[in-house]
Amino acid sequence: MLTVKKISKAFGPTRALIDVDMEIRRGEIRGLIGENGSGKSTLASIIAGAQFADSGSFELKGKPYAPRNMVGAQNHGVSMIIQEMGTIPGITVAANIFTGRLEEFTRFGFINMKAINRRAAELLQEIGAGDIHPETLINRLNFEERKIVEIARAMVANPDLLIVDETTTALAQRGRELLYRLIRRLHEENKSVLFISHDLHELMSICDTITVLRDGIVIDTLEKEEISVDRMRSLMVGRELSGSYFRSDYDGSYSDEVVLEAKRVTSGILEEFNLELHKGEILGVGGLSDCGMHELGRVLFGIDKPITGSVTLKKNNVQVKDPHVATKNNMAYVSKERDREAIILNASIKENVVLPSHRQLRKVLGLITRRSETNLTNKQIETLRIKCRNGKQICNELSGGNKQKVVFAKWLGKESDILILDCPTRGIDVGVKAAMYKLMTELKAQGKSIVMISEELPELIGMSDRILLLKNGRLQAELRRSPDISEKQIIQYII
Amino acid sequence: MKKLMRSICLVLATVMLLTCLVGCGDEAAPSATESPSGFATPTPKPASDDPGAEGGEEASGSKIKIPDNLPRYRIGVMYYTFTDKLGSQMKNALDYLAGSFNVEFVYIEATWSSEAGIAALETTLQTGLDGVIAVTSGVPFVEACKKAGDVPCVSIQIEPIDEQVAKEMAAYDNYLGAVCENDFQVGANAIDALYASGVRNLGIVGLTPGLARSHDERIRGVKAALEKYSDMKLVAEDYTMAEYSKSISSFAAAYPEMDGMFCSQGVEAIYQTMNTEGLIGDVKLATVDISESTGDYFDNGTLVSIAGGQYGTTMIGFAVLYNYLYDGTRIIPDTSVTLRRPFVEVKSSNEYEQYLKYVDSSIPVYTVDEIAAMIHGFNPEVTFETFTKSADEYSLADIVSRHSGLF
Amino acid sequence: MRATAETIDIQEILNRKARRKDLLRNIIPFSGLVFIFVFFTVVTQGKMLSSSNLTNLISQCFSVTIVAAGASFVYAHGGMDFSIGPSCGVAQLVAALIITRSDLPIWLAIAACILVTVVTSTMVGATSAYLRVPVFVVSLCMRAICSGILTVGIAESDIAIDYARFSGFNSEVLKAVVLLVVIGVSYYLFEYTSLGKYEKAMGGNVVTAFQAGVVVKRTQIAAYTLMGLCVGIAGFFQLTRTAGVTGGSGSGLEFDIMVAIVLGGFPMMGGSAARLRSVIIGALTITILSNGLVLWGLDYLLVNGVKGLLFLIIVAITYDRTNQNQMNFTSA
Question: Of A269, B186, B221, B370, which residue is the least packed, with the fewest Cβ within 10 Å?
Fold first, then answer.
């Protein structure tokens, strides 16, 4: 179906793709995996016509293929569902589905809305989302429904090759089922699918073959039999992941000493919540996205003021009123909104890393020397293996994983004792994730305390000494570390 | 693509700039030699065939001969802006004189900030000036001229703020004095005219106090004259800056008994608002600064008195300066005392017609010969007394009688 | 694996290109200043370089440059202040009144002058920070208040002070020293202490700064206070230069600052790309621009047009486009 020949692309000094060769057969469901910065999204977007390659060529169904834009690609039978939010707010579902194609329904300058709506309804029905009405304003739909609309849009021109880019992260149960059904249907129609995802288990169950990219180069293509989670992981990272991914021990012990206490805290959906964090403990907090766990993180660090109750540091009985007090007492906070809250995108790595540590670096008359900043930054770059040119590089040039490393570096450089991490490994690839888990384990060993708020169950199960499960702002269950905890068990508590 | 567009824009901008450069570099020069729009350049007439251009001032006025080969002087002229009515009249009047006196005028727009004005002055002095005529006063002004090489300077239309400052300025050798309109008098005269036309309930519209001294003086004159008349009273006053129309509208609404107004400045908006508010016929108006609608509003009985012709002061200021430049004559003996001059006051449609013909047309209020007659170096009979006399006599009638034969 | 020597070379080339772009970004702000300086030196046939003109330039650039140094803290965190012009005028008014109506010593008048602007600017910053009103609105209100006070102050007449008595303050040497001191201190605070770094961090992302422990309100207000200090200093020197207070005292200052910011390549919304030297360069550029245009002797009708054109060229050269939003396809 599709032949990729020596495709290359660079963004400034960053080479995203280097001489990529690939062949996708008809009726094949191909998985594409790789860490952030591996180039998989870039490759997909080039195939789908959203970007141009610097060199190389394509062949589609035996003929040369060079789309000028996404609609052109669609007309050739290649459709992509993109990773980010791709619907246009303010217009209807039907308009979103047929964006760019309205001329087909226009006669004498008049747009035949009835026909568009009808066709949209048919399309939605076909993919199994008949309950979404084409005339609804897109703003009224939730995240998952909007993604489903995007899927419908991708199916408009009856593609021969459907590219799914990290779509499943936006979908819940129902959405995923819908997508899998669609993929299977395409397979039956002898059409091809290129599936990009971070979820290795998911890939294993859906794909016939999986191609692994690393640093812009095709590492290997695994046939069905060869696929295993471990194999995929090591190919992605490039080395055998020594030791275990999460913690190797099942000892959930920690000191008796309480370092941070939240008493009857109410904030947002969180209601009269109590929490005790011990020294040397990794406290996991989990639940559905809107259960109040993110509010908990913010209140613990003093970002939000609770309506009732208080958060106290036990060592010196100081109330955590705001982040200034918190940081002064060696607390740290990693926000789940990485780009929006945790990092200054337009600033250099150095400026970000040094930011909470001024007090340590200050000399006489408030002087902070360039050298002290550089030293601090370089130490962190080395420790965390941040991939960058040097400390002066601007953060928005970094990949997601490296940005998260910078965020961690910021707090590690300050030698924090209590860390509140909200979704610390979201959108980060395997190699970096492993490094983070290792880091967290080390911190625990050093006697630091960590609150880990996460929506990823494997991570909670794998890393926490205790897990607090929340639902609707209240504590549902508290689980202690044990090898027997299963995801199914947890799901029961949180839904 | 983007880089290409950017380079094209840059090249275009630079080309535009360079053509400006070529065209403008010598802009300053031509204004001295050719005659610009405004007043027609007079041919320096030998005294004998000048019929009837007799003035009231010196008997030998028409017989003054301007010597040939006058030295070339470069004189800086500073005013708020030359694009408004008064500014452009001033510029035209000076350009009119430039050729005959072999003077190059360098025009500096000072804007409204005193600091910007001083900066502009200092910088222009750098280009080499022989003298400065400026609408600015104060010691920094004189000091700047002194620092640039004792450049002689004259203040026009503005005077030292108080006696103290006047004395300080007079202490400078290079300061030649100030020539100013009598704003106080024009205000007082306006009231007299309004009273004479039957106004008993007066409204005053002016600029925010402190913003322009000339306006403040006019209002002071108005109020002083008001004291004289026991049966004329002030019913309304408003000093919101430049919102004349709003003031008038509120007067019309709140004070229906008002039958006369004094506006410290005659902007067109005033007439329009009076029209919209239906004040025509009920309210009389006296104001300063003549504009297009003046004739109409005399005709419909609204205007009682309007003053203008301030640019004459600039020409006199030039005469004061030129006196010094030519042979060192200091025509104003005590520079701490301002030479005051009246406005041209117009009181009827007829007079307005005359104004248009004699004040605001191709020949300014003083001809080249008349100015020449004020230069001691050309006319030894010139003294401070003759200067003052001619100043006092300045009026529409005076101009008409001096220039009637020229048209 | 295909990490061949050839691919390593290509990486090196790309790295070198990135480094060159960095270098260019550092040099470019100066180029606007150099361009204008050379342009006018040529066009005025060297008069720009005469010692007397250069001396004049010190006096002419003084106000804008000093205030620019202080204003950079405010603009670095994304703030602004439209009231500095009128508040400068009021400060001069207060100082002039003290001088002319009382026998209090000079240093008291200076202190009062500076105090006025410090108070007004701090109030702008504090009101905006604590009442959560956009600083745009607050500064416009303060502007109106100060204009009103100034108007009342000169209602009777403009105020004049004894020129001779204060002519010492007009010495260019003194001004040069004050300039260097203020710029030096500002530079130190901006580039080497927490204050400047916090301001830049807030300009980059105020939420991140907040979560990193920066006391946002305090830092914001500090910037305004600092700027107020600079405005006061500039105000007193303006007073001695014009030897009086009029309705136009101090006017235009806030707009001159904004022009200086743009011409110098300082980011208008602040952030990490903000550098003190950018505003200083911008202030010098605008001074030389005004000075040069007058020296050139351009017909006054053309002055504004040419000013605009030169402005355009400088901005085209120096505007920092590198930090604009890009659709990032490579990150997840």
Answer: A269
Q: Does A490 touch chain C (CB under 8 A)?
A: no
Q: Does residue C298 lie within any of the structural domains?
A: yes
Q: How far apart are CA C154 and CA C144, in angstroms?
A: 16
- Residue C291 is nearest to which of B24, B123, B210, comparing CB atoms? B123
Residue A103 included in any domain? yes
* Each residue's pLDDT tens digit, A128-182: 887 888 888 888 887 778 888 888 888 888 888 888 887 776 677 777 888 888 8
**ipTM score assigned to the predicted complex:** 0.84
Contacting subunits of A (3+ beta carbon pairs below 8 A) = C
Contact residues, C window 165-204, toward B, CB-based 8 Å cutoff: 167
> How far, in Å, CA of B316 to CA of B306, rounded?
22
DSSP 8-state symbol, B178 = E
A389 within domain boundaries: yes
Contacts of A389 in chain C (CB under 8 A): 15, 18
C88 pLDDT band (50/70/90 cuts)? very high
Q: Which residues constitute the domain of residue C242? A: 47-317
Amino acid letter, residue B137: S
Q: What is the pLDDT confidence band of residue A451, given thresholds at 50, 70 and 90?
A: very high
pLDDT at site A468: 92
- Alpha helices, H only, B25-113: 30-33, 85-101
Residue numbers in C near B124 (CB within 8 A): 294-295
Closest to A412 (Cα-Cα) out of A374, A367, A457, A356: A356
B132 CB-near residues (< 8 Å, 6+ apart): B75, B76, B77, B78, B121, B125, B145, B151, B152, B153, B154, B321
Residue A374 falls inside a structural domain = yes
Same domain, A313 and A416: yes
| Residue A27 shares a structural domain with residue A103 | yes
Residue A409 in domain: yes
Is residue C113, in this structure, part of any structural domain at all? yes
pTM (2 d.p.)? 0.78
Q: Which residue is associated with the tokens 């030039």? A: B318
Whether residue B10 and residue C313 make contact (CB cut-off 8 A), yes or no, is yes
Instruction: Find the CB nearest A389 among C18, C208, C328.
Output: C18
The Cα B242–Cα C154 span in angstroms is 18
Structure-block tokens of residue B127 = 């280009």
Percent with pLDDT over 90 in chain A:
23
C206 found inside a domain: yes
Domains, chain B, ordered by start? 52-181+310-406 (3.40.50.2300), 184-308 (3.40.50.2300)
Q: What is the CATH number of the domain that holds A149?
A: 3.40.50.300
Q: Are B160 and B262 in contact (CB under 8 A)?
A: no
Q: pLDDT for B33-76, tens place per residue?
A: 333 344 554 444 333 333 333 333 344 445 577 787 888 999 99
Q: Is residue C145 part of a domain?
A: yes
Number of domains in chain A: 2
Min Cα–Cα distance to chain C from B135, Å:
14
Tell me how far apart the terminal alpha carbons of chain C are, to the nearest angstrom: 24
Question: In B269-356, which ranges are E strands?
Answer: 284-288, 303-308, 339-341, 344-346
Tokens of B398: 């005076």
Q: Within B80-182, where are the H helices?
A: 85-101, 114-126, 139-147, 163-170
Please list the alpha-helical segments (H only) found in A356-446: 358-361, 370-384, 400-412, 430-445
| A and B in touch (3+ CB pairs within 8 angstroms) | no
For residue C165, give the CATH number of its domain. 1.10.3470
Give the mean pLDDT of chain C: 85
Size of interface B-C (CB pairs under 8 A): 147
**Same domain assignment for residues A232 and A125:** yes
Angstrom distance (rounded) from CA C216 to CA A424: 25
**A427 and A400 in contact (C-beta within 8 Å)?**
yes
